[in-house]
Automatic annotation (TrEMBL):
Protein name (record): non-specific protein-tyrosine kinase
Species in which this protein is naturally found: Hymenobacter tibetensis
GO molecular function: non-membrane spanning protein tyrosine kinase activity
One Pfam family matching this protein: GNVR
Enzyme class, first EC level, given as a word: transferase
Signal peptide (UniProt feature, chain positions): none
Keyword rRNA-binding: no
SUPFAM superfamilies in the record: P-loop containing nucleoside triphosphate hydrolases
Family: Belongs to the CpsD/CapB family.
Domain AAA positions: 612-771
Catalyzed reaction equations: L-tyrosyl-[protein] + ATP = O-phospho-L-tyrosyl-[protein] + ADP + H(+)
EC number: 2.7.10.2
Amino acid sequence: MAVNENAELEELIRNATGGGSATPILEPESTDEGGGIDFDTLLLVARRSLLWVVLLIGLGVTGSWLFLRYTKPLYQSSSLLKLDEKTEAGELGLGGIVGTGVENRQSINKLSGEVELIKSNIIYRRLRDSLGLNVTYYAEGTVLESELYGLSPFVVEYQGDILYNTKFSLDITDTKTFQLSYPVAGQTQSGEHSFNQPFKVGGMTLLIRPSAMFNKEVLDRKYHFVINDEGAINSYLDQNLMVSIVNPDANTIQISFQDYTPAKARAIVNKIDTVYLQEKLAQKSAASAQKLKFLDQQLNENRQNLQDAEENLQNFVRRTKTYDVRSIVAELKGRVEEIEEERLELNEKRQLLADLAKMVDQESLAPREDMTVEESIPGLNTLADAQLSQQLGELNGLVFDLRRVRRSNRETTEAVQSRLDRVNYVKGNVQRTLRQSQDQLRKQSALLDQKRNTFDNELQLLPERATEEDRLKRPLAQYVGTYTMLMARKADFLIAIAGTTPDFQILSPASMPSAPISPVRLMVYAIGLASGIVLGLGLIAVRYLMHNTVTSVRELERATTASVLGVIPTYDKEKMSVSKLVVDKSPKSAISESIRSIRTNLDFISSSKKKRMISVTSTISGEGKTFVSVNLGGIIALSEQRVVILDLDMRKPKVNLAFGAENVKGVSTILIEKHTVLECVQHTSIPTLDFISAGPTPPNPSELILSPRFDEMLAELHQVYDVILIDTPPVGLVTDGILIMRKADIPIYIVRANYSKKTFLKNINKLIKANNFTRLCTILNDARASGLYGYGYGYGYGYGYGQGYYEETKPAEGALSRLRKRFS
C-alpha cells in the first residue's frame, strides 16, 4: 500500500511542478493503522456489505437445494450376525479328550478370515446367480434415472456373443412391440422388435418378454438396461459392500450394503446371510472329510512302519538272546564286583595262613598260657576251619607244656623228649593242614580270575549291542507314539464331529431403509448456510483489510491530535469539473449550514483578533481545499466581514476557475512587482468577497513566498480586509504550504472522506510536531451519511466528481432508493 501511495505522490509532484524538482516536505508513512481492530470502520464495512452477505447466504442455500435436487439418495441396509461353535462333546464330559477341538470363542484373526470369505468371489458368484444381478434395468427421468430392481416391466434373456456393459435403450411402442437402440463402434443402431420373439444383436441372441409389472402406464416412459459382466458385478459389490467386526468377544459381524435402491440393498444383505450360511456348512463338510482322509492315510503308513520296526527288534533279540542290553550290563558289573570281593577275602585268608605258618614255625601262637589261639589270632575265625583251629589249640597247649617241663628237667630227659616229639608231630600236622588250605585258596583265586576274564569279554561286546538296540528301539518308539497319537486324534475328531453343531444366528436381519444416508438434507443445508456465512464474513474481512481511506470523523479524531472544525457533506446536486461557489445559491442547504458551523468554530478559536489570516491546505491534490476555501470565504463574507481569497497554489491555480475569471495577473505578478494589489483584486457576486488569482506560474514559487514583498502584500490586504483566506499548495508535495501555514493565524488541513489515505493522517501529526502548529485544525470534506454522527453531508470535486446540496424540502424517494441508501 505504501509503495502505491509514494508512486501516486511522485506522479502528482511531476504534474504540479511540470517536471520540476520540487521536493515534498512530508511523505506518507507506512505505519500500522492502529493497535487493534477499528470497530467503527468494521461496522461501516459490514453495513455496506450486508446486501452481498445476504446474497452469498442465499446463493449457498440455493446451491444446497440444487445439490439435493439433482443428487440421487443413497440408502444402506445392514444385518448383524453372530458366529459361534457349540460343542456338545464338552457338555458330555469329553472336553479333556477332545483337546484340540473347535473352541467356543473365535479369535480376532478367525473373524477377519470370515470377513474376507464374505467379500470373496465365492459369495459374489452365488449372489450373481440367485439375485439376477447380471442385468440391470433403469427407468429414465427428466434429470436422473432410477433403477427398477424387481419392478421392471420386462425381462431380458440372452445368449451367444454377449455385448457386456452396453446401454440398450428401450422405448415400448405398444403392448406387443418396442424400439431398441444401442451403440456399436461409435454409431447408434436401432430397430423395432416384438415381445417374446428372439432377435439377433450382432452375435448375441436377445429375448425380451413382458413381466408381471407390465401395464399401460409403462408406455409413457423410457427404459434402458445393461448386461453386466463378472468384473462389473464384482466391482459393484466391492464398492458398496461393507463387512466389519462389531465385537470380537461376542463373535459378531455386521454386513452393510449401500445402493440407490433401498429394496435392492435389503435383498443383497439378506441373500449374503443365506449364502454365507450355506458356504460355511459346505466348508465344514469338506474340511471334515479331508481331515478324516488325511488321518486314515497317515495311520496306514505309520502302521506299516511300526510293523517293520517290530520285526527288526525281534531279529535282534533272537540273535543276541537278550531283550535289554543295559540290564545285562548292570548284572555283569554286579558279578564282577562280587568276584573282586571274593578275591579280596581269599587274599586275606592266604595272608592269614602265611602268618600262621610263621607262628607255627616260631611256636608263638599265644603270648600267654591262659589265652587261647582264637583270642590271640582274631582273624582265625574267618577261615571257618574247625580242624585247623583244633590243631592249633592242641599245638599251643603242647608248646606251653614243653616249656614248663624244660624249666624243671634237662633236655635229655624222657619227659622233655617225649613232649618234644609230640609237639613236632602236631606241628607237622598243622603245617600240612596249612599247606592244604593255601592250595585250596590258590585254586579258588584262579577260578575267580577265569570268571572275571569271561565277564570282561562279555562287557566289551555289550556297547555295540546297546547301540544297535537303541537304533532299533528309537523308530519303534517313534512309530508307536505317532500311531497312538493319530488314533487319539481320529477318535477326538470323530467325537468333535458328532458333538459339534454350527450355530449361525442373525441377531438383526436386514430391514428396509427408510431414510437415505447420503445426502443428509439438514447437513447439506447447514453446509450451504455456513458456506454463505463464511464467504460473507470473508468478503467483509477482505473489504475491511482493503479499506485504507478515511471515512468518518471518528477515524479523523482517533488518528490525529488536531482539532476538527467540522464536516462538509457531499454535494451531489450537480456535477462540476472544477470547484465553484455554491453557498450563495443555496443558503439553506446542508452544505451551507455545515460551513456556517465551521465559521462559528473559527470565531471561537480567534475571538480576540479582528484581523485574521486563514490558510487552507491538504496532503495531495484533489482533497477539496479550493472548494473549501471558496465556500468558507463566501460564508464568512455573508456575515458582513470583508474577505479576500489568495490563490497561492501557483503551480496549479484553481481559484480563478471557481469564479470563472482569468488568471493573467495575480499573486505571482504582485510579488515580482509587476502589478499592484489593487490591480489584481477581482470581485465576486458577494459584495464583501474578493479574490486574487495565482497569476502566471513562476519558476520559483517558494522563493517568491519567502521574499519581503509577500509580507508587504499581506500587510496591504489587512488594511482593507478582515479575513485573508489563502489557498495553499498541498504540503505533501511541496514546501510552499508550510511556509504559508507559519504565517497564518489559523492553519486548516483538509481531509477528504473515502479519498484521503489513512497514512496521510500521520503527516498531520508529524506536521504539528515538527512546526509547532498548535492551532492547526482539520475539516472532513465530502463526507456521506455514514461519515457523520447521524446526519448526511458531503461534496465532490475535481476529476469528474460532482457536488450537491440538500434543500430543506427533498423530493420523495422510492423504496429501491431507500433500500440502497440503507445498505450503503
